[in-house]
Design a protein that fits this description.
The complex is a heterodimer. By secondary structure, chain A is of the alpha/beta class. Helices cover 50% and strands 14% of the residues of chain A. Chain A contains 15 helices and 8 strands. Chain A has helices spanning 5-14, 32-45, 62-65, 75-79, 104-109, 115-126, 143-150, 163-184, 188-198, 209-219, 221-233, 246-263, 277-284, 289-292, 297-311, and strands at 19-24, 50-55, 91-92, 98-101, 132-137, 154-159, 237-243, 268-274. In chain A, β7, α12 and β8 (268-274) form a beta-alpha-beta unit. Chain A starts with a helix and ends in an 8-residue tail after the last helix. Chain B has helices at residues 7-10, 19-32, 46-63, 66-76, 107-116, 121-128, 132-139, 149-162, 167-175. Chain B is globular, with a radius of gyration of 19 Å. Chain B is 53% helix and 0% strand. In chain B, α2 packs parallel to α5 (107-116) and α8 (149-162) packs across α9 (167-175). The chains are: A alpha/beta, B mainly alpha. The interface between A and B is medium-sized, with 23 and 19 residues.
Chain lengths: 319, 182
């Protein structure tokens, strides 16, 4: 699937500085790693230099998505000084421009690594000389996952059109947002309110970030303004995976509207990927469908999604 | 959220929204807070959802009525919509027989109705098997590109069915404006 000249040129120039992208989802088994792998693959195809970071705690399988054996070198080798530079811990994927960094999830959970060392390694990851560092963050809402999500230039939230996935998606967004608000709280009083709001059944009746900010405003107008700024700069982008019909596609628009109206958040709808036999056939063969079935609908949707994310385009309000 | 109090906000709109936007936003909002929705059931409890639905219906009833909307806009100091609100088409739930069809229908009239019904050209083309191109010619009143009347009539029938209008009357009202070929 060759790209047109204009596509290559425009995209090649679009990203001048390194960007951090992350794919989160708050629930396992929704194809998050597959989306991360195909986004990375497509970005590289469009001329970006990409490092895919497997930061899934426990369930690291990005290499399998890419059809690679378990990488011989991982981040652990760098941390334990068996390698001199972090670049040496990268694994070539066979796709030009796309490399893989495994074992970042282990780093985050390892109890025997000092906090300062974690920070140093994370800064090394962020400092890699590439165009896009794309992080597959794990399931769950651990602080480390949330931090990856929060520090991203492009924070993709993958969900499938199923109740549990969407509930977890909301939980993930709320947890991330509250963590951000907590960090921005100017004093202990506001921090306490944020902590209270984190409990869904709190006595103050704070159910959403909007409630929280309104409550803070009663006590401290400036603090409320600071929280609003934080909320305004948090911009998760939904990707609906495994859609089967137009109603599934429409859910993305509904999620964005619900985030805006009930969480006070400016989310957007970045795209969707159809459920397709070609995808799972490729998965079973341990091949990436982007390479294996480039003419499939899902592959075309990933290409559109990647272009849209690079240009900051969204699918509009849905009405 | 701060503008959720005015009726436009209830539908996720800004004052000045066109009639088509009101129609679409209404349908969208009903789905958003519908009983089998995935997007809001975990954010709002059933009572709140029901409350949202009735607020949405009230907002729509007022905003889709040109006279009541005008009074409302004036009362709130909102500018009137750029495109005048016409009492047409009827609410989506209303059957085709309720729609008051004018004597003469233009392509843009049809387009407006179609958009208000939330039917995309692509969807229409898929169902009717009429090419998107011809559907566009119809909506753009490009008579020179349209097929012979006998075929055009069939196209218009299909078109009308897709937007729940009376096929015969739509074809008649549209074809009145065709330049005579004699």
């Amino acid at each position: 699937m060759a790209l047109t000249v204009s596509e290559t040129l425009s995209v090649g120039r679009a990203a001048k500085r390194r960007q951090i992208w992350s794919v989160g989802g708050g629930k396992g088994g929704i194809g998050k790693s597959l989306i991360a792998a195909s986004l990375g693959w497509q970005l590289a195809r469009m001329g970006q230099r990409v490092v895919l970071v497997d930061a899934d705690l426990g369930g690291a399988n990005l290499h399998t998505c890419l059809g690679l054996p378990s990488p011989a070198r991982t981040l652990a080798d760098f941390i334990q000084r068996r390698l001199d530079t972090i670049e040496e811990a990268l694994t070539e994927t066979g796709a030009p421009g796309l490399r893989l960094l495994s074992g970042a999830g282990d780093l985050l959970t390892a109890a025997n690594i000092k906090h300062m060392q974690k920070v140093r390694v994370l800064n090394k990851i962020r400092g890699l000389d590439v165009d896009v560092v794309l992080i597959d963050i794990g399931a769950g809402t651990s602080f480390n996952s949330l931090d990856f999500f929060l520090l991203s230039d492009v924070a993709v939230l993958a969900v499938v059109p199923e109740p549990s996935s969407i509930e977890n998606g909301y939980r993930f967004i709320k947890s991330a947002l509250y963590r951000r608000l907590r960090a921005a709280a100017p004093h202990a009083g506001v921090r306490n309110l944020v902590d209270t709001a984190l409990d869904p059944k709190n006595d103050l009746g704070l159910r959403t970030p909007v409630d929280l900010v309104a409550r803070v405003e009663q006590e401290d107008v400036e603090a409320a303004a600071a929280l609003r700024r934080e909320m305004g700069s948090f911009h998760p982008r939904f990707v609906i995976n495994e859609v089967r019909d137009d109603r599934d596609v429409a859910i993305g628009h509904q999620l964005v509207a619900a985030c805006g109206r009930h969480l006070g958040l400016r989310a957007s709808y970045a795209g969707y990927v159809h459920f397709e036999d070609a995808v799972w056939r490729a998965v079973r063969r341990r091949r990436l469908f982007m390479a294996d079935a480039p003419t499939s609908r899902a592959a075309e949707e990933i290409r559109q999604l990647t272009r849209g994310l690079l240009k900051g385009e969204t699918l509009g309000p849905g009405y | 959220m701060e503008d959720a109090e005015h009726l436009y906000g209830v539908l996720g709109l800004e004052p000045g929204a066109s009639r088509e936007q009101v129609e679409r936003a209404y349908r969208f909002s009903l789905e958003l807070y519908g009983e089998d929705t995935l997007a809001t059931y975990s954010l709002l409890d059933p009572t709140e959802l029901e409350d949202m639905r009735s607020r949405i219906r009230e907002a729509y009833q007022l905003l889709s009525d040109p006279e009541r909307r005008q009074a409302y806009d004036q009362g709130h100091g909102f500018a009137p919509p750029e495109i005048p609100v016409v009492p047409f088409p009827e609410t989506p739930e209303a059957g085709a027989e309720d729609v008051e069809l004018p004597e003469v229908l233009t392509g843009p009239d049809l387009k407006r109705i179609r958009e208000a019904r939330g039917v995309s050209l692509r969807h229409m083309a898929n169902v009717t098997k009429i090419g998107t191109r011809f559907l566009e010619y119809i909506e753009d009143d490009r008579f020179g590109f349209l097929p012979a009347p006998v075929y055009l009539r069939g196209f218009l029938h299909e078109y009308a069915r897709m937007v729940s209008l009376d096929p015969r009357r739509v074809a008649e009202a549209y074809m009145k404006r065709l330049p005579s070929r004699s």
